[in-house]
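Fold sample X.
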Amino acid sequence: MNDEDVKDVAALLKTMSHPIRLKILCLLQEKEMAVGDIREEVKTTNANVSQHLSILRNHGIVCSRKDANFIYNRIDDERVLELIARMRDLFCPEDHA
């Protein structure tokens, strides 16, 4: 890896490493979700979820689409989907039992 690649990967991992953002990404690995649905799973406020989604969106990790009054979020980077799946395999084997 060259220095620029190292910086890019480090920035991506830093963005993902917050516990709430990591939990959001684990949820979005399964399906796209609205803020309210994410809030219920993460057990925090809509504002907090929105703030974390904004950070993920600004780094190109998550994108959203509007449908009527709801905004649905999903992971927009296949590498992140693969990384989350691999982390689940390594650190959450009970998910696959």
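Fold sample Y, listed below.
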Amino acid sequence: MTEAQIKEWVELLENCCADVPAASLNFIIDQAGTTPLLSSVRSVVPALTWQSLFDGLPEEGSLHLAPVLVRVDLTQPLQRQWLIGLIGDLHDRSRLLFLVTRWHFPALAEYLGRCLGARHRGRGGLFRFYDPRVFALLFSHVFEPDQQQVLLRPAEFWSWLDRDGQPHHLPGASDLPQPPDDFTAFELTDSQLERLSCVSDAMTAQGNFAGVLPNEWTTEQRFHACYEAVLEGLAAGHRTGAELAAQVRKKLRGA
């Protein structure tokens, strides 16, 4: 993104936030796979409100890898400039997931921290819903409607950058000014877990078969073509690495 594009996105977020009474702008930083960014968060004056979403979890000690929830006030010039700089520093690494909400910060952090828990066949694990590369797929390919509501409920809207650095928005379903008393952890089926694992396979295919795809396609278009090809290959019973790769390549050649 250019500096002008970044400022345009920040202004859009600011305007959307201003349209909702008592709303605030928050974002989750995905620190995995990049230089830890918590020191940058701590350096801002006036101080930002932030919390690790690993708080209270077994992973609590891995602060350098934790998803960090940050509340930013764009009316504060230094906070605004820091955010613009942060987006620019990340370049094409999509690591920020924004949401506008009316919830108080401690309640929001506690709720999103609970969303990290997911179960599959009775076994628990850490669910990286906050990865912007995965987030949109939860609503298009993975989650059932009731599961979608868990993430939509605190948000007036969610926003992130795609693989081409283009902003996307997803309207939320905020119906309460605070978290509900009832909360059910995500229970993932075999099919849902497989669809999540296909993200990694699609990214690998995107690199391996770059020459097969049309040159005029964007990075985002290339990823989705690979993702659909992987899904079709698995549905057809091609499950070994070499067999699946051959089927994906065949599918992409006909794209």
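Sample Y note: The first strand starts at residue 24 and ends at 29.
Also: The chain is about 45% helix and 15% strand.
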